[in-house]
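Tutorial, part two.
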Amino acid sequence: MHVKLVRLRFSLVFTNLDGINPKKIDDMKKILLIIFILNAVFAYAQEPLEYTDVVYLKDSTISKNDIYNSTSEWFVKDFSSAKDVIQLNDKETGKIIAKGAYHISPTLMIGECWVNFTLTIMMKDGRFKYSFTDLYHTSAHGKSYDGGDINQEKADCSGMYMTKKAWRQIKEITEVSCYNSITRLTETIENNFKQNEEW
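Running the prediction step on this input gives:
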């Protein structure tokens, strides 16, 4: 999409350049093309790190109510930390919003820390939608070591306290943690429904 956009703008800029030195036109094209590409890259880099998708369950007959009950059970089991707080729990609309935090154990590159987040689950018959937002890194060693907003290219504490490689690794761990959470949620919903059917 970015390439098509660049080409479209590129062709519009150079539609009326009769009488100008061809070499100057080529130089101008190169400069403007670089500007367009950098703008596209910058826009892409500024997109927030947000994990969201719709999960379609294997059995489409699982009702919104069943999904809600299993999701509530999953929250109790998975959100057991003192940092975890359910902010909205609406059975009628099938929506749960909670704040949580993934604990990251210390490694050679990373000190003990958490990645805080807001998780929104919206439910309908046979499916649910999840969204992880407000992803924010905090350290166990004080605010001076906090990385801050995960969307940032560099951590707030970058440099001596946080290398680029360590910051990238924290983002990768966060992505895997989000994926594993939704996998467990999906399994809880489907297994509960299966057990209720077999009872």
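The chain has two domains: 2-45, 51-198. In part three we will examine how such features are distributed along the chain.
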